[in-house]
């Protein structure tokens, strides 16, 4: 099946964050073969454009992956491979949905396809590059929601690097060493988070993950570092979290904050969600709204684009980053069908009332 072979080819090209050029070139070649104008841009995004109408729709999904090899293979109705779910599968479904649109819609809509780079890295290079270059009326972010799922929200994020450096002393001394000071700080943050989470559902809880902890061999000085991240619900913005973390920190430790992504929750009832629900129903499914506890390019772009935005794509997100990552082929094909129907429906609705029709193309 040509659709499956196209995705399989993308999965066979390794593309960990920062090394996406080869897969971007492959996707551009595929888009050109399907009749789209396509190119690799300065951020090494795989870009495509279909149509020339006033209604501007952006379909953006990332083409980088986390490290690790999942051998590409088809087993029954399952296609295995790193990125099959997160998120080459969703982006390829975007391409195929767009390429199959009726030709007579070209004068009504312009579909911008962005296979974005470095989403799995804190940089989100690809999304940030296009943030001020496109002005969409509607946005779909390529992330696994299951073909019947429509994701309305993602948590925000804050990355925290903590360092303690102090004069070395004999281990018989009663003073806590550098590593113990960091452990005490992390324990206090853990207690704060757990107190904040009392009575809150999963999407509204703060999540914490200790990513790294290291101790340098001590000679004249002790040096300890740790790295953790927080996933932030809508009630806690990154700058508010920073204030809390600084308040709990003793003056002897150094903190560096990065990866400040705001939480995002979109409305349930927009022309985009209605079109997507129609597409899912016409493909034989039952639409369901979802809220994700992770972070994606939706968080990066929401502050720049005021357009209605959802995340959508085939695949089970619990398989993200796992050794068993795979997409069900029937689901992949259903997602293409549902999204294509949604795009047709949006084209018929026209440019939203009050929107600027001179959007950049």
Automatic annotation (TrEMBL):
Q: What is its EC number?
A: 3.5.1.130
Residues reported in the UniProt entry to bind Zn(2+) 2: 86, 120, 321
Q: Which GO terms describe its molecular function?
A: cobalt ion binding; hydrolase activity, acting on carbon-nitrogen (but not peptide) bonds, in linear amides; zinc ion binding
Which locations, inside or outside the cell, does it occupy? Answer: Cytoplasm
Q: Which UniProt keywords apply?
A: Amino-acid biosynthesis, Cobalt, Cytoplasm, Hydrolase, Lysine biosynthesis, Metal-binding, Zinc
Keyword Cell cycle in the entry? The reply is no
Indicate the residues that form the catalytic site. 64, 119 (proton acceptor)
Keyword Isomerase present in the record's keywords: the answer is: no
Annotated cofactor note: Binds 2 Zn(2+) or Co(2+) ions per subunit.
Q: Where are the transmembrane segments?
A: none
One GO BP on record is: lysine biosynthetic process via aminoadipic acid
Gene Ontology, cellular component aspect? cytoplasm
According to its UniProt record, which reaction does this protein catalyse?
A: [amino-group carrier protein]-C-terminal-gamma-(L-lysyl)-L-glutamate + H2O = [amino-group carrier protein]-C-terminal-L-glutamate + L-lysine
Required co-factor(s) are: Zn(2+); Co(2+)
Pathway noted in the entry: Amino-acid biosynthesis; L-lysine biosynthesis via AAA pathway; L-lysine from L-alpha-aminoadipate (Thermus route): step 5/5
Cite the binding residues for Zn(2+) 1.
62, 86, 143
InterPro entries assigned to the protein according to its UniProt record, in alphabetical order: LysK, Peptidase_M20, Peptidase_M20A
Source organism's superkingdom?
Answer: Bacteria
Q: Which family does it belong to?
A: Belongs to the peptidase M20A family. LysK subfamily.
In UniProt terms, what function does this protein have?
A: Catalyzes the release of L-lysine from [LysW]-gamma-L-lysine.
Q: What is this protein called?
A: [LysW]-lysine hydrolase
């Amino acid at each position: 099946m040509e659709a499956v072979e196209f995705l399989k080819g993308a999965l066979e090209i390794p593309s960990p964050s920062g090394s996406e050029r080869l897969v971007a070139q492959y996707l551009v070649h595929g888009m050109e073969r399907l009749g789209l104008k396509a190119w690799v841009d300065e951020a090494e995004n795989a870009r495509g454009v279909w149509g020339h109408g006033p209604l501007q729709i952006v379909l953006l999904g990332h083409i980088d992956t986390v490290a690790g090899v999942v051998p590409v293979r088809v087993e029954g109705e399952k296609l295995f491979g790193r990125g099959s779910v997160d998120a080459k599968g969703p982006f390829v479904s975007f391409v195929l949905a767009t390429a199959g649109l009726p030709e007579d819609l070209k004068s009504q809509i312009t579909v911008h396809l962005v296979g974005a780079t470095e989403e799995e890295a804190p940089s989100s290079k690809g999304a940030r590059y296009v943030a001020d270059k496109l002005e969409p009326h509607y946005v779909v972010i390529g992330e696994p929601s299951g073909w019947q799922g429509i994701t309305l929200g993602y948590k925000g994020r804050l990355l925290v690097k903590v360092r303690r450096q102090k004069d070395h002393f004999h281990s018989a001394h009663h003073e806590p060493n550098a590593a113990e000071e960091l452990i005490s700080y992390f324990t206090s943050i853990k207690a704060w988070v757990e107190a904040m989470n009392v009575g809150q559902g999963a999407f509204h809880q703060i999540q914490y993950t200790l990513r790294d902890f290291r101790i340098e061999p001590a000679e004249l000085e002790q040096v300890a570092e740790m790295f953790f991240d927080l996933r932030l619900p809508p009630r806690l913005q990154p700058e508010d979290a920073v204030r809390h973390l600084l308040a709990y920190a003793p003056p002897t430790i150094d903190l560096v904050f990065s990866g400040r992504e705001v939480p995002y929750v979109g409305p349930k009832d927009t022309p985009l969600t209605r079109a997507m629900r129609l597409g899912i129903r016409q493909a034989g499914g039952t639409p369901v709204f979802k809220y994700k506890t992770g972070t994606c390019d939706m968080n990066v772009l929401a502050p720049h684009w005021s357009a209605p935005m959802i995340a959508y794509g085939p695949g089970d997100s619990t398989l993200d980053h796992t050794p068993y990552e795979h997409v069900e082929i029937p689901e992949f094909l259903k997602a293409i069908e549902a999204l294509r129907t949604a795009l047709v429906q949006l084209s018929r609705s026209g440019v939203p009332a009050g929107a600027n029709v001179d959007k950049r193309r």
